């Protein structure tokens, strides 16, 4: 379902990208990037996404949290 939602999200207006990481126990974090609060709101209302959210609540996740944040700046090091 995660792959299906990633593909669907990538087709939505305002989608910028997604990052996801899981540990050996299955715990993890997924971050999706959008160009506006309106795009986030539209994704939240997407019918297929709503079905996946409900399935997640009922079957896959014991708990979860959602944070909506604004990225002001990004930089990284190549580690060399």
Features:
alpha+beta, two-stranded antiparallel ribbon, Alpha-Beta Plaits, 80 residues, 2 strands, single chain
Task: Provide a brief overview of the structure.
The chain is α+β, with helices and mostly antiparallel strands. Helices cover 40% and strands 19% of the residues. The chain has a domain at 2-54: Alpha-Beta Plaits (2-Layer Sandwich), CATH 3.30.70.
Q: What would your notes on this structure say?
A:
With 80 residues, the chain is an alpha+beta fold. The protein has a domain at 2-54: Alpha-Beta Plaits (2-Layer Sandwich). It has 3 helices and 2 strands, in the order αββαα. Strands 1-2 form a two-stranded antiparallel ribbon. Strand 1 and strand 2 form a beta hairpin. The radius of gyration is 14 Å and the shape is globular. Residues 7-55 form the ABM domain. GO terms for molecular function: monooxygenase activity. Keywords: Monooxygenase, Oxidoreductase. InterPro entries: ABM_dom (IPR007138), Dimeric_a/b-barrel (IPR011008), Jasmonate_Hydroxylase-like (IPR052936).
Structural class: alpha+beta
Query: From the alpha-carbon coordinates, what is the Rg to the nearest angstrom?
Result: 14 Å
How are the strands ordered across the major sheet? 1-2
Basic shape? globular
Biggest sheet, open or closed, and with what strands and sense?
Answer: 2 strands, antiparallel
Proportion of residues in β-strands: 15-25%
Number of DSSP-assigned strands: 2
CATH architect. name of one domain: 2-Layer Sandwich
The tally of helices reads 3
Helix content: 40-55%
Uncertain spans: none
Note the gap between the termini: 37 Å
GO molecular function: monooxygenase activity
Protein name: Antibiotic biosynthesis monooxygenase
InterPro entries: ABM_dom, Dimeric_a/b-barrel, Jasmonate_Hydroxylase-like
Keywords: Monooxygenase, Oxidoreductase
